[in-house]
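Hi team,

As requested, here is the filled-out complex form for the magnesium ion run. I kept the field names the same as last time so the parser does not choke. Let me know if anything looks off before we queue the next batch.

— J.
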Amino acid sequence: MPLFGRKKSPETTLPRERWEPLPPPPEPGPDGLRSMDDHRDYLLSCLTELPAFNQQILDALDLSICEDVYSSIDMPRFDNSAMDGYAVRAVDVADASPEHPVSLPVVGEVAAGQDALHRLSPGTAIKIMTGAPLPPAADAIVPYENTDRGTDDVLVHEPSVVSQHVRYVGEDIRSGAQLFAAGDLLGPRAIGLLAAVGRDKVLVRPRPRVAVVSTGSELVEPGHELGGPHQIYDSNSAMLAAAAKAAGAQVFRVGLVSDDPSEVLQVIADQLVRADLILTTGGVSQGDYDVVKAALPELGATDFASVAMQPGKPQGFGLIGDDRTPMIMLPGNPVSAFVSFEAFVRPAIRKLMGVTPYTRPVVRCRATHDFGSARGRRQLARGIVSLDADGGRLVELTGGHGSHLLGGLARANAIVVLGEDVTAVSAGEDVEVWLLEEVYG
Ligand code: AMP
Ligand code: MG
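And here is what came back:
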C-alpha cells in the first residue's frame, strides 16, 4: 500500500517491460467481448484487502470488523434501578393498596453515579434514581408514580413483587461473552455496544483513499465560465467522487486534466503517493485522442478490454507504479462512467475495505412497461423503482438508453440489469435490479 512517498524518479520513462505483468485476463467470448462478470471478477482477483489497524470506533461505521470481540464486563455491571422511586423489600409493600397504603421511613438516597452505601433495613425505603445501584437487601423498586413522593416517610399505594423494576447484573451481557465475530459489519448500534463495553478502538480495514481524475480537453471545472461551444462541465469527477464516498472510500477529487499525454501521466503519477485506488474517466475507447489508453502503459501494467455491457463497453484496468496501485479507467460518457462504477468500482472499494458482499444484492421488480435490450450485452438500464399498494416493487425505465443522458440517470434510483440473452421485456415481467437507494411508499 503506498502509505509513504513513492520515489519520484525518471523510472517512469523506462521501457514498458519493466512492469510485472498482470495475471492473464479472462478469455473473451466469440464476439471478442469479455463478459461483465468476468471483468469484475478479474479486477477483484487483482486486488488485496488493505491491512487492518485499530481505528476509533466512530471511524469504523459501516466497516467490517477484523477481530472477534468479547465483553470484558458484565452488562449491567451491577444490580440497579430501572425507575426513579424507592428501593424496598418487596415483602414490606406486598399488601399495599390505595385503600391501605403502607408507610415506610425514607432512610437515605442514592443517585446514578453514587455508591449504594446503606444496607436496607427491614421496614424502610431508600430513595433511588434510575441507573443507581440497588442497596444491599433491597429487592424491588417502587416507582414514584405508586407513592406520595414523601421525603421523610413515603406512602406506598401499590403492591410490589420481588425484582420489580430491578435490572440485574449480567442479564444483558455476561463478561466473556462474544459480541462480534470477524467479518461483522459495524452499524450505529454495534458501535454503541462497543462503547458500552468500554472499547474506543476496533480493528478494521481503513477506508481506501480513492483519487478521482477526469480526462478531456473539452472539460471545464464547475463554477467557471464555459468558453467556446465545444466546452462542457466536468460532471464525472464530482459524481464519481460522491459515489466513491457513498461506497465508503476516502476521496480526493483531483478534477480534470486535458488530453495531453504528459499532463495525464504527471497527474496520475502524482496520485500514487496518496491513493489506494485511482479512478479516471475518459480516453479509453477507440478515438484518436484516447489518451489514457495510449499513455497509461508507461506507468504500469494495464489491461484494456471491450466488455459485453451497455453502456460501458470500453474498460481499462492497471496496477500502476512501483507499488502496483490499482487503477480503474472508466469511459467518459457520464452514464457509462456511473454504471461502470456500480459494476466494477464499488465492488473494488468494498474488497479493499473487506466489506462483503462486494456486489449489490439483486432484487426483483415488476416492469411497468415493455422495453427492449441489445442481444449479447449485459444491459444496465436506469430505472425508477416504486412500491405498489401491496408493497410490491415496480420499476419503470428512465431517460432512454443513451449513455449521455445524465438527466435520466439523476432521476433513477435503480439500475435494471438485463441478461445478455434478453432482447425484450414485457410489462408485468419481473426483472433484476440493483437498488441504489432505499425505496419508500
Ligand atoms: P471519452 O470517453 O473521453 O471519449 O468521452 C466520451 C463522451 O463523454 C464525450 O462526449 C465526452 O465529452 C464526455 N465526457 C467525457 N468526460 C466527461 C466528464 N468528465 N464530464 C462530462 N462528460 C464527459
Ligand atoms: Mg475524452
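Two things worth flagging: The chain has a mean pLDDT of 94. The two ends are 44 Å apart (CA to CA).

Thanks,
J.
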